[in-house]
Amino acid sequence: MVINTNTSALNAASQLDKNSANLSSSLARLSSGSQITSPSDDPAGLAVSMKLNAQVARTGAAMNNVSNAISFNQTQDGYLQQVNSALSRMSELAVASQDVTKTTADRALYQQEYSTLGSYVNNVSTQSFNGVSLFNGNTLSVTTDGEGGTFSNVGVNLSNTTYTTATGDDISSVSGAQSAVKDTESAISQLASDRASIGANEETLGYYNNQLSSLSNNLQAATSQITDVDVATESTNYAKQNILVQSSTAMLAQANSMPQSLLRLLS
């Protein structure tokens, strides 16, 4: 037994430092909810989780893009429902104006209503969604994933000749009314085709939205497996480390008291 070097105390102190560090790490994981509180805990896992988190963020942005595009199409269809009502009424007026019992004054009244409805349709063609034209006919490229994939959102053009010819007709005469009937029928047929395109856009974008939602959930679940702490397991580990720290402290105290027994040999 020696006095200058207390090997037992040194070993106990080393073990205490180790156990204390483990206890601090366990406490940090429990308090943060993450099992990676510093890069040294899991360097590879940290790198993977960072890439997954970035992909989750990109996927979220793509979901917003798709949701906004769906709203864009829904707004378009909302307007076109009203345009359909207007064109149907214009077609009705064009037929009514051909009534042989109607006077020129009567037809002038029909024309006044017809012209007003035509102006409404023309005005709808200028509407926009957050500054983006709803009815200029442009096909929009909607970002549908975090890697830059796009969907071609087919546009609707309310300014094409099929519509403008119908809205510009004059039904104040029988011959004009006859032409207007054909023109409004063509416009209604075009409108049906345009609404079908919008419906296809909405349907496809809905699929993309569901796909992105599923992808986001799966990516977050994968990230959770890497970074989130298992509270039950870590609580058990914390209790273990706490006991070891207390045990190491007690043993260090015992080891420090051992040299005192040498005094008895000198007394």
Structure description:
This protein has helices at 7-32, 43-96, 104-124, 161-167, 174-227, 231-257, 262-266, and strands at residues 128-129, 132-133, 140-143, 150-153. It is rod-shaped and about 140 Å long. The protein is built from seven helices and four strands; from the N terminus they run H-H-H-E-E-E-E-H-H-H-H. Helix content is 73%, strand content 4%. By secondary structure, it is mainly α. The chain has a two-stranded antiparallel ribbon with strand order 1-2. It has a two-stranded antiparallel sheet with strand order 3-4. It folds into two domains: 7-33 and 229-266; 58-227, f41 fragment of flagellin, N-terminal domain (Up-down Bundle). Helix 1 runs antiparallel to helix 6 and helix 2 (43-96) packs antiparallel against helix 3 (104-124). The two termini are 16 Å apart.
Keywords:
mainly alpha; two-stranded antiparallel ribbon; two-stranded antiparallel sheet; 4 strands; 2 domains; 73% helix; 4% strand
CATH-defined superfamily of the largest domain: f41 fragment of flagellin, N-terminal domain
Mean pLDDT, all residues: 88
Shape: rod-shaped
Kindly provide the name of the CATH class of the largest domain. Mainly Alpha
The tally of strands reads 4
Q: Give the C-alpha Rg.
A: 39 Å
Helicity range: over 70%
In CATH, the architecture of the largest domain is Up-down Bundle
